[in-house]
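Expect chain and fold; thus:
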Amino acid sequence: MNLKNVRKASLREGIERRLNVLSDFAYVVRYRKMADRISYGAVSMSDILTTLRRFVAYPGLTRAEARQVRAYYAPYRVSTLAHRQVKATSGDFHPAYIPAEMFFAYIDPYMNNRKKAVGLESKCMFDRLFPGIPQPKTLACRINGYWLSSDYRPLTFDEVAALADAQEAVFVKQSDDSYGGYGVVRLTHTEDQPLTEALAETVKAFKGDILLQMPIHQHAELARFNPSSVNSYRIVTYLTPEGKPYICTAVFRMGIGNTAVDNFCSGGIMIGIDTRGRLKKIGYSEDGTITTEHPVTGVRYEGFELPSFGRALKLARRAQLMLPSFRLVSWDIAIEEDGTPVLIEANLTAGGTEAQQITNGPFLRNMTRRIVKEALKDSDFPKLRGK
């Protein structure tokens, strides 16, 4: 191909990409009501403008790529924003990336009973929700202003403080509406402030229900990445209509520096896990930083064999069967020093897709078409013309 033809091809591709961005922009304007469903309520002008900016922020797809997306999701009309986001960050393209508007506005509410989730996502209830599932040891919890022991007996705050004072460290967790590491505080004994005093200040700052837990002593292999944070597996399961739990995706999360949390949106790193339980080559941070080894400890990612990964998958499948009202759940699982998987959190609704797809490919893997067909069968999701 001569230089003239190269320039023509480059110009044609540039036009295709710009047209794709304009197409996505027109999509969100035309179907803006879906934003109401995603946000569970009214959407402000600021929210709309933010959404529109996101739709034009990423480079467009080529005409061939856009056709693949349309063909994959036919008869439904989808935007290509998710595909553009992933490709812009990781360089990878696959038509099966799940569009955010389809997942959050239709698939997630179809699969998961959001009304039930309001009460069941309370961390104070996890011991009862998941009997027999290993979890961090609970010292006490505060529900509706009342302090209770791990077996739900009434306690005074002085009794709670005494329980905490006997430990080297405790975690105080906001029971509801905590995400991305928000609402999690680690307390230890220091020369400047006794643990009991720090506890009194912390629980006073939290207005709602809270949970006091013992720290997890994580597996030595996972501590190699970042010893100060509990580095965990995010595993997503789907409960099929036949009652079989299916693993959709799994990623590894770890913190950076002197932090107690490993969350992606709190500055942590996320890396895809292959089907053999080994890390992929590249780690991603929310600010766009790409690494192949931990920036502080220098531990390389590619091929790293994760301890007890098979056992963690087994725990996720077992826990999924305990909550059939929620068929698409994101589980956060840590590994104790003896190799025991421990359930940290269950995200019963809106577990997120963007970071998982950037690190590990299509969110729903081989179940994508099956789940879309089931969840959207009788919905009003926009369809392609003539379909």
